[in-house]
Amino acid sequence: MPELPDVEAFRRVLAEHTGDPITGVRVRDPGVLRDVGPRRLDRALRGHRFGTPRRHGKRLLAPAEGPVLTFHFGMTGSLSWHSHDDEPHPHDRVVLSLEDGELRYRDMRKLQGIRLMENEAEAEESLSDLGPDATEIPRGDFDALLARRRGRLKTVLTDQSALAGLGNLLADEICWHARVNPLRPARDLDDDERAALYRAMRRVLRESVKAGRVPPRRSWLTGVRDRPDGTCPRHDVPLSRERMSGRTTVWCPRCQPR
DNA sequence: TTGCATGTTCCGGA
DNA sequence: GTCCGGAACATGCA
Question: Which residues bind near strand C, taking a CB cut-off of 7 Å?
Fold first, then answer.
């Protein structure tokens, strides 16, 4: 699930539970730990308190009075709050216990996972492979980014090193809102189209962040894209789809012509 | 059994 | 250097 809005929702979960000491870390499946083992993780966090968490793109950083825990959710990761006696889910991989409850990192496929940074500087450095966050990029930088790339628009929007936070669903949703075909070469877009894309990005992100996910409304592409008989919410036209490098791209052939 | 899934990385080839 | 596609990672579901 996780794209920028989902990770933002996980950030809120974490933000509600800062300030209480971490009483212990239970690793139920070390397969989600990257470059750190269960013992070192527990030693680094036990007795510490989480400070204000922050998000960049799809990454979540949780400072803990020195060390910084970083979450990268892959396709199936999540972070949720539970009471101690809540039955664990089979995909709960790491449990961070606090006094009045616990945070659970759940992840079915374990494609990415949790890292431990020694300090703020290292945490900051770990973000250096990412472009500007999609909620913060200025219009001018967005324009320049599109103008300089000859690859497909969809590829640019989902390139985390160029623009951080957009995934498969969001990129298609934004292109649909802007009425621009995602397979067009990015640098071929004219000013109006770039403006429409930027506006669509802001609007889609604002509403998705509010919902904590890309909302599957019937009036949005996301609400209909997975139906076998899916038609464009604006027209009664069957949606077009194409697989590109293992992901399905969906668009409306009428409002987003090639 | 096969194909697909909202992420990312690595590799080869154009 | 840029761009693309394919395979891989690990797991479940239709």
Answer: A 31, 90-91, 108-111, 149-152, 155, 243-246
Calpha distance A188→A67 (Å, rounded):
45
Beta pairing, strands A59-63 & A77-82: unpaired
CA distance A22 to A49: 6
In tens, the pLDDT along A32-56 reads 998 889 999 999 999 999 999 999 9
- For residue A89, the 8-state DSSP code is P
Residues A106 and A12: their CA atoms lie apart, in Å, by 16
What is the CA A192 to C1' C13 distance in angstroms?
A: 42
**pTM summary value:** 0.94
pLDDT digits (tens, 9 = 90+) for A195-239: 999 999 999 999 999 999 999 899 999 999 988 888 999 988 999
